[in-house]
Design brief:
By secondary structure, the chain is of the alpha+beta class. It contains 14 helices and 12 strands. The protein has a 7-stranded mixed beta sheet with strand order 5-1-10-9-8-7-6. A hairpin with a 2-residue loop joins strand 9 (154-163) and strand 10 (166-171). The chain is elongated, with a radius of gyration of 24 Å.
């Protein structure tokens, strides 16, 4: 799909005069090219809630795209636990945007994040489409090398359809749920090595011998060098800070039994270099390990957790904040 997206190359569903397509189910049912995705919607019990949706935009994979996805992931047509043919209902709802009826020119105008009807971990039932909580975001942008419009990493074809419920775009692949915040942090985490440990020791102030001559400094340094609980990559410090604040579960969307994990969050992540330059050795040690080293004194423990949370709160927001959606400069007031 070129940057002038949204034009219809050939007549499609809803294009004939006199035709009257109301819902997305009507649209999917009107063309055999979408029969595979319609079957997924039916088997995942999405028909009734999808019929009630208005003012939305939908991305629909072609039959070939659905079959290719099943083959690549080695899934048959079995259905179990809200999964059909390897596609979860959470994943199916991810193809639907809540931001209104969007046309092709708007999609191709600039890179943008959109909010889907799919929600973080939790019970994925038919009623989840009517959930008022924030949806998982997806991104559209024009690929600079090919001039094709992409949704996440999937090509959007130049053919679009419409019904009373909204617009539908045909795509060349099945959209997959994006990684969690923790996944992204861990993507920047190298395997632990002596080099990594030396780097951490340097970031923690070990390069200055005067900062670690006390018993407390030596204990902290030993703890940092041997701590395997959390990542030690580019964003190791921000992950440890959230862990010390007791908030790591809040951004772990894999924990479906946690109320916090089903709430969207935005992490304003700093890398280890920024953390090292922004706080001195004593401050870093207190923020990351104060709660652990004061665990035998309830009053000191509460103080340490409160202090750590006060700092960590600057870097995590409730909700899926997007700078692109806010507009230039608006995010500076957060």
């Amino acid at each position: 799909m070129r940057a002038t997206a949204g034009t219809t190359e050939e007549p499609g569903p809803g294009s004939d005069e006199g035709s009257h397509l109301v819902t997305f189910i009507d649209l999917l049912s009107s063309d055999e090219r979408f029969s595979e995705y319609l079957h997924i919607v039916q088997r995942l019990r999405m028909v009734l809630p999808l019929n009630r949706i208005r003012n939305a935009t939908m991305f629909v994979p072609t039959n070939d795209a659905v079959k290719r996805y099943r083959k690549e992931h080695e899934h048959g047509l079995e259905i179990a636990d809200n999964v059909y043919g390897g596609i979860t209902d959470q994943q199916a709802w991810y193809h639907l945007i809540t931001d209104g009826v969007i046309d092709g020119q708007t999609l191709a105008a600039r890179a943008m994040l959109w909010e889907s009807y799919s929600h973080p971990a939790g019970d994925r039932t038919a009623s989840s489409a009517e959930d008022s909580s924030h949806g998982i975001m997806l991104k559209t942008q024009v690929d600079n090398s090919t001039a094709q419009l992409m949704v996440n990493e999937v090509t959007v074809f130049a053919q679009s359809f419409s019904c009373e419920a909204g617009n539908m775009f045909v795509i060349d692949g099945v959209l997959e749920i994006p990684p969690t915040i923790l996944d992204i942090l861990h993507q920047n985490t190298p395997n632990r090595s002596h080099r990594t440990q030396r780097r951490l020791r340097r970031l923690s102030g070990q390069s200055a011998a005067r900062e670690s001559h006390t018993a407390y400094g030596a204990a902290i340094d030993s703890h940092i060098a041997s701590d395997d609980a959390y990542s030690t990559g580019v964003y190791g410090a921000v992950e440890k800070l959230l862990a010390a604040a007791g908030w790591l579960d809040a951004i772990d969307a894999t924990k479906g039994d946690s109320n916090e994990s089903s709430t969207m969050h935005t992490l304003w992540a700093f890398d280890d270099r920024a953390f090292s330059s922004g706080f001195n050795f004593a401050e870093r040690a207190y923020l990351l390990y104060g709660p652990k080293f004061t665990s035998d004194d309830r009053e000191l423990l509460d103080d340490a957790i409160n202090d750590t949370q006060a700092v960590a709160a600057r870097y995590i927001s409730t909700g899926s904040v997007s700078v692109a959606r806010l507009g230039e400069g608006k995010h500076k007031g957060l």
